[in-house]
């Protein structure tokens, strides 16, 4: 990898199916030395900061920050995710780099949250998402994965910062999911 990078290899390549960046796959497979090389050559600091911050590896975060200045939005999003995951060393680095404290969650009425409950499907991707309310929060669970609580940004927008995921309801029976540069429409009870 070092040789390829020295010869000018593009570090911003993405997987053709998932649209995930190379650094994301390297971090997921815990190839830390290769990840550090890629992070140090980052040309897309915003994207790469999100990929490494969730790993909990302060050395990778430091490498990305040394490669360039992230946008305030990316810095804040990575900081919020580090706080949510209790990655104190990473959060400290991001705070030093200028991250702002996250806004408190918006309170959404229980009746509104309950109106979103149901099973949603998309014609764009083969995924089924179960949405339900519990303890004043909106939860999502994709088939075969663990459930997770979202943070309310408004009565119609919810986020799960550790996965850089955001959903926005345009009605009680449909939402748009945004993640990794993709945008996917889901409808309650719709066929695949």
**Protein structure class:** alpha+beta
**What portion of residues belong to β-strands?**
15-25%
Low-confidence stretches: none
Please state the CA-atom Rg, rounded to the nearest Å: 18 Å
CATH topology of the largest domain: Serine Threonine Protein Phosphatase 5, Tetratricopeptide repeat
Give an overview in words.
This protein has helices at residues 2-6, 22-28, 32-40, 45-53, 58-67, 72-84, 88-96, 110-116, and strands at residues 118-121, 128-134, 137-142, 148-149, 151-152, 157-160, 165-171, 174-179, 182-188. The chain is α+β, with helices and mostly antiparallel strands and 192 residues long. It folds into two domains: 2-96, Ankyrin repeat-containing domain (Serine Threonine Protein Phosphatase 5, Tetratricopeptide repeat, Alpha Horseshoe), CATH 1.25.40.20; 110-188, Lipocalin, CATH 2.40.128. It has a nine-stranded antiparallel beta sheet with strand order 4-3-2-1-9-8-7-6-5. A hairpin with a 4-residue loop joins β5 (151-152) and β6 (157-160). The longest helix has 13 residues, at 72-84.
């Amino acid at each position: 990898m070092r040789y390829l990078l020295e010869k000018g290899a593009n570090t911003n390549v993405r997987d053709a199916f998932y649209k995930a960046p190379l650094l994301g796959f390297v971090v997921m497979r815990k190839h830390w030395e290769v990840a550090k090389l890629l992070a140090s050559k980052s040309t897309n600091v915003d994207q790469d900061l999100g990929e490494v911050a969730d790993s909990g590896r302060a050395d990778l975060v430091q490498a990305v920050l040394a490669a360039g200045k992230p946008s305030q939005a990316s810095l804040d999003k990575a900081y919020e995710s580090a706080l949510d995951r209790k990655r104190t060393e990473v959060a400290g680095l991001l705070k030093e780099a200028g991250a702002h404290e996250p806004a408190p969650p918006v309170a959404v009425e229980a009746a509104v949250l309950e109106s979103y409950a149901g099973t949603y499907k998309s014609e764009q991707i083969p995924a089924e998402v179960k949405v339900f309310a519990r303890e004043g929060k909106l939860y999502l669970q994709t088939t075969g994965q663990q459930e997770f609580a979202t943070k309310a940004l408004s009565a119609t927008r919810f986020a799960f910062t550790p996965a850089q995921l955001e959903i926005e309801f345009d009605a009680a029976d449909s939402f748009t999911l945004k993640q990794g540069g993709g945008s996917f429409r889901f409808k309650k009870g719709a066929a695949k």
